[in-house]
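Following the same procedure, backbone shapes were mapped to integers, as reproduced here:
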Amino acid sequence: MVKFGNWVFHNRNWFFALFYASLFIPSFALTNDLRIQIGLGLVIFIFGVMSRGITIGLEYIVRGGLYRQIFADKLVTSGIYSICRNPMYFGNLLILLGIGIFANSALFVFLTVPIFMLLYASIILAEQSFLENKFGEEYKLYKKNVNAIIPDFTKIKEAFKGQEFNLKKVIRKEYNSFYLYLGGLLLLLLYQKHISFIYFLIIGGILLICYLTIRFLKKKNRLG
């Protein structure tokens, strides 16, 4: 499983692309109530985005690896990592679940999301193996006391104590992902005929302007 997890980590971007493409496969509907579809989907999606943003805005672990291989130069156990070992993965799962509900796709929610969870489980096992080999007992003790995915919300106040949130860092690191998320939601609205093509172009144009503005500010080192 560890070898498989390393392989998944190396090729994870391709898996994510396939998962998002599966949103457009015809499926049974989850609900006939548009308010539940859009409202609940957006709430879960927003919580996922917030989880990622909080993780990045506080003390942050480089999750991209090194040359697409699992890597860590230090063991971070403070901040949000004191209540969850993988808060970025938790956020990603919420985002996927929210998008699946937003798309009203039973296939995505009950097949794609569980497959995604299994793939993440393999990555976590591979990362655990790497971290145990590198940090030894320090990591084993950390793993014993902190949940892998679900945060311990009873300790959230303590986790944020003494932490400084860096919004510029969040924007700098997340603007690409956020643009893709919102673009995907917008495309789903068009695909399901909830908005007209004109509105799609207008909103898409606004998103593109925001994206290019942030990209310009980043290149000019205005975002830290």
Observations:
- The chain is about 70% helix and 0% strand.
- The two ends are 39 Å apart (CA to CA).
- The CA atoms of residues 42 and 98 lie 6 Å apart.
